[in-house]
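User: Continuing from earlier, I have the next pair ready.

Assistant: Great, send them over.

User: Here they are, in order.

Assistant: Folding the first of the pair now:
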Amino acid sequence: AIRSSPVNTKNQAMKEQAQGTMLKVLTSFKSSEIEQAVNSLDRNGVDLLMKYIYKGFEKPTENSSAILLQWHEKVRVFGAL
């Protein structure tokens, strides 16, 4: 989902659909899988992931904030390396 993200589109509906898809993807991961997923991304992918995490905080769904905090923690650790 990150590799096909519509970052440069002006179509707001497409961006919102991508955000919804990313939130579903992020919340489907088990806690033990998050670090490996973050480490599989390049720097640009991690930057885009962080943007999706912040967007997810703006429009939380049931239990999404707790999961997004776990993603945020792993991305911050990655950024500190």
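And the other member of the pair:
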Amino acid sequence: MEALKGAYGKAALRVQDESDGGDREATGFDDFVVFAYPQSVLDALEAYYRLLAEDRRSPYQAEVNAVLAEEASVWRMSEGRMYLIDSRFLDALRDLVEEDMRREGFLGAHEEFRDARSYLLAGDADDAIHKANCAFESALKALLNQREGTAGELLKRLRAETDLLHGVPEEAQKAITGSVLQGLPALRHKVGGHGQGVEPLRIPRAYGDLAVNLCAVYLKFLLDLKKELSPPVVRPESDAEDDDLPF
């Protein structure tokens, strides 16, 4: 409570009084969190994070974000700070991609993409980047019926060995596989584990968010191409069906 009082510059903190609709002095930290005005609760969560030992901060942040996600809140904690992330569109895109992967049988990519989202929610940007790239590679392997290969190798095969990109000119195909779809692999190798050098870096959440969002967009693009080139077969109605005759 003293840290909060110092932050607000007040000797006492006021909370809502449910008995008469007014306010009253908070009796302690728990009382403040439960009955404080909404904007003050976020301050309390940040203050509590700063008071924790280093090894307890990450689990605390993960628990806070899990509760906020369960309550469909637009707030998240990153590095001990609360941020407004009105990401309903991106969340809907991620959910859509997960459903499409299940439907198309991309089970490995589906599991890795879910892992990437879980790591991101827990504040682990490095592992989120790694798993997002793994999901992208797994989707490419499923499309190409391959068991091995990096994203770069698989993208070359996607252009050379399939007709998935034949809807655009060859130069555009090269740009798509050589530049547009290389963002996530580059992020993995330059920012993720491979590009950190001897001393591991603490990767900000924004990079993990970028990786998961790129992965969702890439996967949707691949799934959409696959569906466009493999549309469901529509069987024409027969004359007998038109006449409602059994023979």
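Worth noting for the second one:
The two ends are 83 Å apart (CA to CA). DSSP finds twelve helices and four strands in the chain.
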